[in-house]
Amino acid sequence: MQRMRPISYAEHLPVFIAVARAGSFSAVAARQGVAPSSVVRQLDALEAALDVRLFVRSTRGLTLTDAGELLLARVPALIDELVDLRAEVAALGDEPRGILRIACLPTFGRHHVLPLLPDLLARFPALRIELDLTERLADPARERLDAVIRIGPLKDSRMYAQRLGTQRWSICASRAYEDRYGSPATLAELAEHRLLDKCHDPEGLGWRGLRAAGLIPENAAGSILACDDFEALLLAANAGLGLVYLPTWVTATAISSGQLVTVFDDPAKREDEIHLLRTLSRPPAKLAVLAQVLLTTFNAD
Question: pLDDT tens digits, residue range 56-77?
C-alpha cells in the first residue's frame, strides 16, 4: 500500500490567501508583524512546492495567475473544513471549543438564545458562536450548521431531535390598553376591540386561525396593525396599540415585568414542541453545553 505523502506546503496557504486578498506582500507583513521578506519566502516556498507560478509580480503590484485564481477559489473552503474538523475532534474531549453554528427564528434567538451567551462564553472562552436568525427552514447538513431550533411537527427523519420545551399561546394586552379601552370579559367581546394581527398567515397562526375554528366571533377582525414579525407585534402590544395573540415564549418577559397581562389563555389550546435538531448522532461538547442551558431555561419557566 502506498504511503500518504505529507502536504508540506499546507502551512503557507493562509499566507497565500492573505496576500491574494490584500494584493501586497508588505500589507500582509505589517499585519503579521514580520518583515516583507518573510512573507515573500513563504510564497516562494509554496510556488516551488506546487511547481507553478501563483502571482505575476511587477512594479505595479501583484496579479494572480490562472493557477493562483484556482487556488484562491478552492483553498478558503478547505481551510474552513480543516478548522471545523479540528474543532469537532477537540470537542470530543471535555472542553467545548470551536465555532458553534446555530439557526433559529429571529424572535426566538433574541429572546432565548442571545441572553444565554454572555454566561456561556464566559464559562467556555474557547467557544465561538455563529447565530443565524432566519425565518427560512435552515438545513443543518447543507448549510454546515451544528443544529437548528424548530417549532412544530418534525418532518425530517434524517436528523436527531432533542426536545427543549413546548410552545403555548395566549391573548395579551398592556395595562395602558386596558385603561383606555377596557378588557374583554369573554371571547365574544373581542369583536369590540382593537387587534394586532399576523399578516400573510397561510397556516392560520394568528386571529385568522381562531376565527376559522369558530373559537372567536367572525366579526372579530378589527386589526389596527398587521405585521409578520412577532417582535414587532410584541412592541406594538407593549405600546398599548391593541390585543395580541402570541406564543408565550414571546410574551413571557413582558408578562413577568408587568408590561403585559394575560387576558385569555389560548382558545385553541395549541401545544407545539420545540426541538433542537442536529445531524450527528452524538452531539459535540460545544453543542451539548448550549442544549443544557436551553433545557435549564425552559424547565425553569
Answer: 988 778 889 999 999 888 888 7
Per-residue pLDDT of 176-212, as tens digits, reads 999 999 999 999 999 999 999 988 776 777 888 898 8
Please indicate whether the domains covering 10-90 and 92-167+272-300 agree at the CATH topology level: no
What nine digits make up the cell of 26? 508588505
Q: Which residue in this structure is represented by grid cell 473544513?
A: 81
Residues 289, 96 contacting (CB under 8 angstroms): yes
Fold annotation for 169-265: D-Maltodextrin-Binding Protein; domain 2 (3.40.190)
CB atoms within 10 A of CB 242: 21
- pTM check: above 0.85: no
Domain 92-167+272-300, CATH class in plain words? alpha beta
Single out the residue of 189, 94, 85, 192 nearest to residue 144, CA to CA. Answer: 85
Domain-wise residue ranges, the chain = 10-90, 92-167+272-300, 169-265
* 190 contacts 219 by C-beta, under 8 angstroms: no
Q: Quote the CA–CA distance of 41 and 47 in Å, as a whole number.
A: 10
CATH code, residues 10-90: 1.10.10.10
Q: How far apart are CA 22 and CA 41, in angstroms?
A: 17
